[in-house]
Amino acid sequence: MSRRSLYIPLLLLLTACVIPSARSEQRGSRCDSIPEGAKRLIEAYPTHIVGYEDNMIIFADGERLVYDDGKQRSTVEMHIEQDVEDIFYQEYDTRCFPPAYGYDPGRYRSAALFDKIYGRNQEEVIANLVKVAWCPSFGCDSLLFSRQAGAAEALKRVSDEFELRPELREWVVDAQTFCYRNIAGTNRRSPHSYGFAIDISVAKSHYWRWAYPYADEYQRIAYFNNISLEVVEIFEKHGFIWGGRWYHFDTMHFEYRPEINPPKSVVQKAVSRWECPSAISEMVSSGIFDGVCR
Ligand SMILES: [Zn+2]
Prior knowledge:
Blueprint: H1 3-16, H2 36-44, E1 49-53, E2 56-59, E3 64-66, H3 75-80, H4 111-118, H5 122-127, E4 129-132, E5 143-146, H6 151-163, H7 169-172, E6 175-176, E7 197-200, H8 208-211, H9 229-237, E8 240-242, E9 253-256, H10 264-274, H11 278-285
Antiparallel strand pairs: 1-2, 2-3, 4-5, 6-7, 7-9, 8-9
Helix pairs in contact: 6-9
């Protein structure tokens, strides 16, 4: 069987996970073999990631990337080296606020994955950048953002919402996006280097490295934030995560991370396709599904 022909059964299998059936003897079988994180990646980046097989993420061009390398890492080690699975180390839960000690959901990124989606070097990233009209009615300049993975479209939707909320203008008129650089104090590429991150209201923001220039990752620090949560809500609705939800706060910072925080417009679809087995257990208990996973 060709590699491509394997993907079609995979999609059929995933779709079948939510179809009610009376064949309860196959309970919890094949769909459980695809990790939840891999399902989220396929849902979030459908034009780039087309499947999962044998612990490998499969890209549309046939390239493969190890999902779980089996290594146990500390949070500090995950910043230096990581596999794709480490992205999902912590669930992005907006109820966990202010963030508890060590809670940094989405701060662990797979460089190999984002290199592949957004560009391996400055030249490749720049080739994918487009200008997004950022709140033009507020008099803002256009911003450069990646057209990959729907990032620029998501930023445009955020802009459209802000334009309907002129009372929030002060928060978004100062905005910066693409900048090819490393994260302060590290040799890792910043998400701004890929063109999927935006900083707003730098002058009103708090960043843990500015507040605690001598702190290491394990030091306990106090949390600061002045950014309006109404502003945060609008970004989060469209698939962005907020650095203000991190214990290591970066309150000016938002990045497009649909695998961590699916845009609200696609959440319903994501739940219906991927919430297996957790949503299935709910459906079983409510009597609308017998729990068969084929
Ligand atoms: Zn930033």
